[in-house]
Specification:
lyase, Deoxyribose-phosphate aldolase, TIM Barrel, 8 strands, EC 4.1.2.4, 220 residues, globular, deoxyribose-phosphate aldolase activity, 8-stranded parallel barrel
């Protein structure tokens, strides 16, 4: 962990508030804290957009969150509206049932529908809910995301009962995308040791709600 500086890790962080009861005042406090911490981005629910006083922060919003059990055209419309409201990145949740039943072409098609709704330079991250999947299913979901033109694959919403990010899942995801896509570890990362383990496993972005506590474990 000594090779990772606080500043370097901060520039990998999406400072996140996705609780359904979050108020505009709490979101404004999130933005202010994010600027103070020097993180890369904030990630919020689309209903909280547009954000104010973001400075040079990247603004991310979710689509199809948290279940993923939405029609692809609904996810696409939600993503497009979020971008119109100022989001520069979209974190979409896949329809897990498509992966669990081996309908990988349909999974790819729904990701592509969102990609077409929010073309580059918007960054598209695809949440595969890795804790609910086998290694083979993780691989297939990552391949579908890559084929559909996504920029990142992401472990978790942080809301699924199966759990959040794991080192094993990040390793499998990173191996599958081979550096062609980013890998975002999110869900249950609450200390510096866990964050460092995710980065060592291949994570290039971290989704954190308790960013300050994690970053405090890294030296400047």
């Amino acid at each position: 962990m000594s090779s990772l500086s606080r500043t370097d890790v901060a520039r990998m962080v999406d400072h996140t508030l996705l609780k359904p009861e979050a108020t505009p005042e709490q979101v404004a406090a999130l933005v202010a804290e994010a600027r103070q911490l020097g993180v890369l981005a904030v990630c919020v629910s689309p209903s909280q957009l547009p954000l104010e006083d973001t400075g040079d922060l990247v603004v991310a919003a979710v689509a199809g969150f948290p279940s993923g059990a939405h029609k692809s055209e609904v996810k696409a419309a939600e993503a497009a509206r979020a971008v119109a409201d100022g989001a520069q990145e979209i974190d979409m949740v896949i329809d897990l049932s498509l992966v669990l039943t081996g309908r990988y072409d349909a999974c790819e098609a729904e990701i592509r529908a969102v990609r077409e709704a929010v073309p580059a330079p918007t960054v598209l991250k695809v949440i595969i809910e890795s804790a609910a999947l086998t290694d083979d299913q993780i691989i297939a979901a990552c391949r579908a995301a890559e084929a559909a033109g996504a920029d990142f694959v992401k472990t978790s919403t942080g809301f699924h009962p199966a759990g959040g990010a794991s080192v094993r899942a990040v390793e499998v995801m990173a191996s599958t995308v081979g550096g062609r896509l980013g890998v975002k570890a999110s869900g249950g990362i609450r200390d510096a040791a866990t964050a460092a383990a995710m980065i060592e496993a291949g994570a290039t972005r971290l989704g954190l709600s308790g960013s300050a506590a994690v970053l405090d474990g890294f030296a400047d």
